[in-house]
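Progress against Task 2.4 (sequence-to-structure conversion) is shown through the following example record, which the project officer requested during the mid-term review.
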Amino acid sequence: MRLTLITILLLLISESVYSDDVRQKRIVLSYDDAPMSGTRYYSGEARTAQLISSLREAKAGPVLFFVNTKGIEKLDKGMARLKSYAKSGHLLANHTHSHLYAHKASVSDFLEDIDKAEAHLSTLPNNRPWVRFPYLDEGRFPEKIAQLARGLASRGLSNGYVTVDTYDWYLNDLFQKALRDGKPINHDILRDLYVRLSLEAAEHYDKISLSTLGHSPIHVLLLHENDLAALYAKDLVLALRRAGWQIMHPDEAYKNPLPAPTTLHTSQGRLAALAIDKGMAPKKTAHWSIIQTAIDNEIETLGAFKK
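Structure tokens generated for the chain above:
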């Protein structure tokens, strides 16, 4: 009887520990397309300074910047900005030289483009051996996907995948258009929408991970190094923490990478692709944060660009 009680207690304890691990909400912030050019709102240098400051104030720890290197020497002191990110403790990784579509470029041309970017990045501190495919396009034919994967591996590089996709870039495009059109900007509304876009996407993909993988991995959130990132990075970090998320060091996310999917549908990131492998329809994996008409409706309903 005593043995049975002890066994039951041990099972309950192990189940509790396992449940805590399963439900642990951990996320990495990653920013694509760095360093982006200046806009009507921020010069490139001012945006970098503001983003660094916002992340520091939020005590976010290191975040990850995926870098395009084409024209970097002429782009708002692009190399100096990347060095500023690295000096502030943030990490840099490869987003190709020219931001090519993998399915449009030949394998050799795409790998050459990665090599060009790596030549620049290898001169910078805090460089990591990860490649983020532009547009999350890893190729549209199995053999090409396999050839690109082998090409990365032969270079000591690996896939810098995402698990939480957002169209923050589209929201930023709407912001830039409003500036060009002289519309008033309600920053309270825009800030809340930017934060909610990412937070609700994170919760959505985490639920998919629990149903698909049976546990919650260290998520990687896809953002871009744009004006909205600089304006609202602190607000986003604080909101994630309030919702129970822990901001993780990027190294932790790729230490034990998720397996590569077999589906060709990779445009929503790795987690959605794995869910599709298990039979979930792409429409089910998609969240409103990656649907342009849904974002348009939010902007219109909330009145982000109205008097």
